[in-house]
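@channel anyone free to eyeball this complex?
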Amino acid sequence: MTYRNPVPTVDIIVELIDRPSRPIILIERKNPPLGWAIPGGFVDYGESVETAAVREAKEEIGLQVELIEQFHVYSAPDRDPRKHTLSIVFLATGTGEPQAADDAKNLNIFNLWEIPTNLCFDHDQILRDYRRYRHYQVRPRY
Amino acid sequence: MTYRNPVPTVDIIVELIDRPSRPIILIERKNPPLGWAIPGGFVDYGESVETAAVREAKEEIGLQVELIEQFHVYSAPDRDPRKHTLSIVFLATGTGEPQAADDAKNLNIFNLWEIPTNLCFDHDQILRDYRRYRHYQVRPRY
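replying in thread with the prediction:
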């Protein structure tokens, strides 16, 4: 089956608001491409991107998150080595103890000044843009 | 062919910056659903959403637009009567005389206080959100 269109996904940057400095959650992927990434996944047919974002956060990190806002859409054709995907990135808040599950083999909690690089996909770029927004309220523009 | 994922589209709100009050362009659709709409179309496989937005503006209204920013993503499963689509809405600027072509049978230029209702898809909602943003700098949030 060949897609004629990029496949939509969501990624969710979850800030843990019951901890100092609102750290965020990254997951270690169970399936290729292996490595660390922002939690997320494919949007199902018949599901809004908001529903998909809440569902994926529940599935991968075990938290009932609250969406704050859409951040930005990333869609470079080479961003995913498997096929052309686009990602709608959400900002969300969560509380409590996240648990890795589903496509996530492991997870870790990072302060904003500790975020690792060499993440999967274009997630380094996404987190650079996120940090710029969180520190300076500057969104990606053209 | 059944899609397992919503199909990504782009819509482009083009402000004509060489005219008083920066009016916007709406098109009359040539194909069902018939009616007035924001210019836009499907994102091709291998094409970023930015490339798709510039291409669709060129095809439907004959203008080389400049993208300003992403506005918001709309993805309610019933927003398009044909199938589940999601739309990444862009704000852009253009100058000169737009010409309807391709999927656009006709076009018209509207000041912000003259925008019609009963548009196709969820474009009434999109333009309400856009007007709120343009007047008050308030984005759609949750």
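from a first look: Chain B touches chain A through 34 residues (CB under 8 Å).
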